[in-house]
Amino acid sequence: MSLLEVKDLCKRFGGLQAVGNVSFTVAAGSIKALIGPNGAGKTTLFNLIFGALLPDSGQVWFDGQQTDGWQPHQVVAAGMARTFQHIRLFPKMSAWENIAVGRHVHSRAGFLASMLGLPWTRREQRAVREKALDIMRFLGVEDRADVEATSLAYGQQRIIELGRALACEPTLLLLDEPAAGLNMRETSEMAKLIARIRDTGVTVLLVEHDMTLVMNISDEVLVLSYGEKIADDKPLAIQKHPEVIKVYLGEDDA
Amino acid sequence: MARRRNLPIVVLALAVIAVQLASAAAGKPQYLTQLTMAGYYSLVIVGLTLLMGYTGQISLGHAGFFAIGGYTSGLLTTYNLHPRGGGGLVSLLQATGLLVAGQDLYGGDLLVVRPWAACLIAMLVAIGIAYLVGKPVLKLRGHYLAMATLGFGTIVYKVVLGSSLVGAADGISDIPAFPLFGGVVVTGKSALRVHNYYLAWGLVLGAMALLTNLVHSRVGRALRAIHGAEDAANAMGVDTARYKLNMFVLSAALAALGGVFLTHYNGGIGPSEASIMKSVRYVAIVAVGGMANLWGALIMGVLLNFLSLRGSFGSYDDAVFGLILLAIMLFAPDGLLRVELVRRVPGLRCVFGQERAP
To answer: Which residue pairs from B81-86 have beta carbons closer than 8 angstroms and sit at least 24 positions apart in sequence?
Structure first.
């Protein structure tokens, strides 16, 4: 059963066709990778799925609902979460507080209840902190809870951003280049982490340039070139696909 | 956690009492008048601190909301409806008890809106205008938001300055006292000076209690997230447009509340309350207090407004605030009462520096 279904999605920026007639599905419980040369429209496709951009035409179906045209915060409430290619942590907030913002859609204290400091809002606050610390333990970074997030080492910032997205309790997790800027050891740890997240029942769609990571953990790989889909198959088949080799992988990698 | 958070409120309450006792002991009760006024101005400042320092949205038009509150309440409680007594609307209002009859200085009949009703209407008007202005304007960022709010402030100033209904350049005077409940009356009568001092600071304490709760809540965290990275906050499920608008309206309501009370306390209001320099002054005080520092803004606000109202800056009043803004931006963009600085002073550590812990 597919959790996400993208139908004929199109997006133009002026004269540039960023995404053209892209259709694909992501099966529940799987990891799907989105690869392609720089400028192939991967991040644009992410933003279209997540509601950060409006498609010119086409549809996005998520968990039985048509979500194109929704705002990101509505998409999150429906069960999607994302990380960013360039880390977008909240400055001047500790690591656990960054993750706690991810609990927003799972808590409900509004302006009035918060100002009055009603007892249930304080209980909710404690539960949010506990959940954030649980997530940090799952990621193995619980000792960094009170450190200002943006002062952490780069690799740890990536982990905290991942934790922030996990705090949304997504059914579909969108990861935009989770291994960008990481060294080899960190990249292999990130790959293990993503596989562990999938094992908890979360479906993953990721954009990534690190082919080792992509081929090791993905169930399916979608290849984009100039905004168009050129292949969508199992990793082994993708590595032998003549057009993919020509536009992206190169002869030596085949 | 809750006790630590309440400690500054208790310290403030004790300071309010100590200052009153000291002024009585020193035989300088007149200081309480300026402290009462400074208290009402503080309502604008703490609201603006949440909007600017925490949410990251600048407003150069908050004097406009203060003036909308003050002028609406002032106009309604002085505009004589007696000549229109036969009209359907006026009779209807009279039947519901919203009007009060009286006599002017020359014994002529007066029929005006009751102060509590006027206060309520003034608040609703300010909230409504804040909503209508904020909805489109808060889509803008940075300089553009500053310019748009400046435009709003300019409109309010020019309207009250040019409108004969609200006394044009003279403003509104002879605004009646505002009986709240029991024997509590908002009035500038010197016999009730102490009583009004406690009323103003009771309001400030209440506002501080509500706002510190807000800062430490789910909402406060979402507001700081908006300040830090708006698109990321939206991607975490925060309805950023609604949160920014709610905070804008809340800060405008606090400004209007200050305007209503100060207007009835002074018995009048003039167009200078709506001037751009007033808005700049509020922004300067928020900056000097440390932007995202409610207590810093409150302390600097009381200090600077008190000195200004005492006339310490003479005719250079506005220039002093301009200079403060310039100096702060150049030499201490994090404000004077910076959390890191104040944390080093052991006695003050409990009062400040708790902004981040839950």
So the answer is: B81/B111, B81/B112, B81/B113, B82/B108, B82/B109, B82/B110, B82/B111, B85/B111
